[in-house]
Amino acid sequence: MLALGLETSCDETASALVDGEGRILAEKVLSQLDEHRPFGGVVPEVAARAHLEHLDHLIAQTMAEAGVTFQDLDLVAATCGPGLIGGVFVGAMTGKAIALAANKPFVAVNHLEGHALSARLGTGLPFPYLLLLASGGHCQILLVQGVGNYRKLGGTIDDAAGEAFDKTAKLLDLGYPGGPAVEMAALKGDPARFPLPRPMKGRPGCDFSFSGLKTAVRLAVDRNAPLSDQARFDIAASFQEAVADIMADRLCQALSMAPGVGHLVVAGGVAANRALRARLQATADRQGVAFIAPPLSLCTDNGAMIAWAGIERFRLGLTDPLDFAPRPRWPLESLNANVIR
Ligand code: KG4
Ligand code: ZN
Fold first, then answer.
1. Which listed ligand is nearest to 299 at the C-alpha?
2. H or E segment and range at residue 266
3. What span, in angstroms and rounded, lies between the C-alpha atoms of 30 and 236?
4. Rounded distance from Cα 240 to ligand 2 centre (Å)
5. 102: CA distance to ligand 1 center in Å?
6. pLDDT tens sequence across 135-181
7. Best of 36, 300, 301, 302 to mutate for ligand 1, by most ligand atoms within 8 A of CB?
8. Which residue's alpha carbon is nearest to atom 7 within ligand 1?
9. Handedness of CA 59, 64, 68, 70 (dihedral sign)
10. For position 341, what pLDDT does the model report?
11. Distance CA 322, CA 232 (A)
12. Rounded distance, CA 303 to CA 18, Å?
């Protein structure tokens, strides 16, 4: 089994070849950080053009590195949403063109399902498991019961977790991209110096809210202006600590809502944060469940998770027609209806 996976839904242009055992034969990820840095965030139009310019070469390099041709593929998988629609179009159309030209099945992959199944890539992790999906556009806790079988236990009622990191980085003038910048700054800071709020902590259910935390960061910045480097580091550390507290609390709640689940998985760009991973590992240990954090390169956007989700769906006979419409919004739970169990 050999799958080509394409990812273009945000600011990473990525392609990868994955086999049926979850081995990554070749993988290319091109970040568009330099293109977006002058704007302090991802500009959809700039992203779409950059995907268009680079995707062909990236695929050619991926194929050459693995020493395979399109004829060797069993399927072509491409992210068809949710995401920035201009970029999604580029990946979806390219994937469809390859599938058509080489006469191979096409799988339209939901980007969130790519993240959700990434923990099974090469690990054989069994269903069900509890998943915290925390990225630039999403923050939700899901019970992953099977391929295309998701139960959302909670989600953010305002900002996504990655968005909160990105906005905090902007307020602190830490540069772009925000998440890794906050993590670096926090390493040099005192997490106890600024008592920031923990919205939703202790509430029933496992929803999230980050907008109040963001406002509190803004107030701390204003009150301490002009910020010294140390104040910047301390606010970053205090913010990260608050996020860790909130996530640990929400996951404990979720575990109580899904008794019998033995694995807690994190995925999405925010799951690349080492401090958060350490905190969630400790939480899982205390709760008596195994903690699974995919390698950092599988947490941020990549083609391998798309190829793998393609393989998982293909094995269930779930391929898609070439007129499948790319979509900016595509809730994970809407996949449930399409799986024959
Ligand atoms: O999953 P992802 O690569 O793209 C989306 O699907 O959104 O996630 C990107 C998000 C950004 O908001 C970024 O700031 C955040 O993940 N992120 C981090 C870290 N690395 C990336 N947040 C906190 N700490 C990090 N080390
Ligand atoms: Zn993502």
1. 1
2. strand 263-267
3. 28
4. 20
5. 35
6. 988 999 999 999 999 999 999 999 999 999 999 999 999 988 899 99
7. 300
8. 136
9. positive
10. 47
11. 50
12. 9
